[in-house]
């Protein structure tokens, strides 16, 4: 796809475009930026080897958007900006695949593979077969159509003959090129098959986010991928960070008079060829073998390392390499005879659901946990499986006594896929949810829009201990050595009662307990002391305010000079902050309105814990002292970070959102809701970029 020469050139082009001040020849500049962005996407998503810093990429993307808004006549359908679709209709239209999407026959051991190899040789009437082996990706299968090199349709598998047209969502996946050079290679139309996948780390981060928002996590990367493809909001699809691997050309038509590219003689050649055109194929993962014993050895070796891969794989696929041979061997109505899947050991097992326990979390949410007979899955014995919340239990129609299918994918926590209802005897019992907290017996409550029942007694012992554990955790105040077990012990003994009590632990009593060396006590004391100077965002996160994850904690900490500023903030004001919606705002406002929380902050401050945003504290005294600024929209005359630094150097402050405290809103192009809000408030001075520079200079 890109020669070394091209790469060097594109990299330099990127730098030039980033430095470019005036854009005289708009069309050339636009083409240049698009080339660079496509190249950067390919490096990032297909090669996993980024060439541009995130900020550089964003700057180019913004420039492209800005210029295209200014000169709409130059917008092209394959511009990277056009991945952002207008939206999908209520339902996805059903479309016919050019060639039915078949499944694969499965093998599970060496013997199965030897049988398959024997059949292949019989059908091919030769002993000279070559096999191509590649990973079997565990995601959602898709079928793409490229007409004259442009992506014109993306569809789900559906029933194999008809699928759902999810083109708008497919266009959000940056690994999938919107256009390629297929036409120049003599191909008028091509249908390409592949799998939509989610990186395991992207999946984990997404689930962490969901949990912090009080939502139940998605079961596994496969479900996440296929569910995301069917979301009706392409902007949301974009956020989920899907990836793709294409592994099969199912159909193609050559342009009139064009000869067939020689690479299209073999499966291996065709995927290398697609890769060279910019498609994400397993080009680097494919292996060729001439003998089935080599294939078997490779399968065994590969299985040992399945967890090292960025994606979930559930096996390997072995394909006859020559297309001429494939045609000769043909297919059944269900699967091709020239390909087979070698499935890795199941990460599923069945077990009996014996009872359900109800656990109380830090925020009081009650989590049902299924206790099952021990079952070995992927080298681990599973006896306990979270059911997340009541809705999950009801949706799956789980009952005590059910035989259940349990899955454990990679490092993902085990979960119950479904009950095997066909095995029911009739003696199964429904799962009863408690009405009172299993720990403190308070009446449980449930908000209409929430899935979880909650114990709202903030002194509920389990909640207090869990809050303490969260406060000292690595991503919060990072008080090492005061781990969960010690906290529980100290709490049970009354040495810890609430968060501020961490700073007044009676160490004499701890010494009296025995089991603590002088050295370990000193270490904990030092860690506690050090935590007093942690930045405000860590404290904000550590306080365990509902729906406030690490990112929101940063936003909140950056927007004020002292945590007490939030005592006066209204829900409306909070909503002006980046990514803070009514749900988060209500929770934050509620937290700071409670007297017990205000008292807690007083106590923390008295112990010397930092409650200030140091960055705002250290603001220079200058011409803009006491003045607040906010930048919005696409800025073209200067970089946002530079402008913010200029403001701060003159003693001004940057706010996170539009509020009554904002003095100046500096707007670039495409300024949206912030400008609206500022206008509504009527107290904010709105400046364009030139006016801002004038203010700075004089
Ligand atoms: S080839 C006609 N190759 O596995 C041949 N399939 O269990 C079509 N899959 O429906 C399939 N990785 O969704 C092929 N490297 C790979 C694959 C792969 C995953 C999926 C595909 C297929 C399913 C069958």
Structural class: alpha+beta
Termini separation comes to 52 Å
Biggest beta-sheet profile: 5 strands, mixed
Number of distinct beta strands: 24
Quote the average pLDDT. 89
Radius of gyration of CA atoms, rounded to a whole number: 30 Å
Helical amount among residues, as a percent range? Answer: 25-40%
Biggest sheet, spatial arrangement of strands: 2-11-10-3-9
> Shape from CA axes?
globular
Report on this structure:
The structure is a single chain. With 698 residues, the chain is of the alpha+beta class. A five-stranded mixed sheet has the order 2-11-10-3-9. 2-(butylsulfanyl)adenosine binds next to β3, β7, β8 and β11.
Give the SSE layout:
Elements: H1 4-19, H2 26-46, H3 54-70, E1 94-96, E2 105-107, H4 110-124, E3 131-137, E4 140-147, E5 150-156, E6 162-164, H5 167-170, E7 187-197, H6 200-212, H7 221-229, H8 234-239, E8 243-254, H9 267-276, E9 287-289, H10 292-304, E10 313-320, H11 323-329, E11 339-343, E12 348-360, E13 366-377, E14 380-386, H12 390-396, E15 399-400, E16 403-407, E17 415-419, E18 429-430, E19 444-445, E20 454-455, H13 461-472, H14 484-492, H15 507-513, H16 518-531, H17 536-542, H18 550-558, H19 571-575, H20 582-593, H21 595-606, H22 614-617, E21 628-632, H23 640-649, E22 653-654, E23 664-667, H24 673-681, E24 685-688, H25 689-697
Parallel strand pairs: 2-11, 21-22, 21-23, 23-24
Antiparallel strand pairs: 1-6, 3-9, 3-10, 4-5, 4-7, 7-8, 10-11, 12-13, 12-16, 13-14, 15-18, 16-17, 19-20
Helix pairs in contact: 1-2, 2-3, 13-14, 17-18
The protein binds 2-(butylsulfanyl)adenosine.
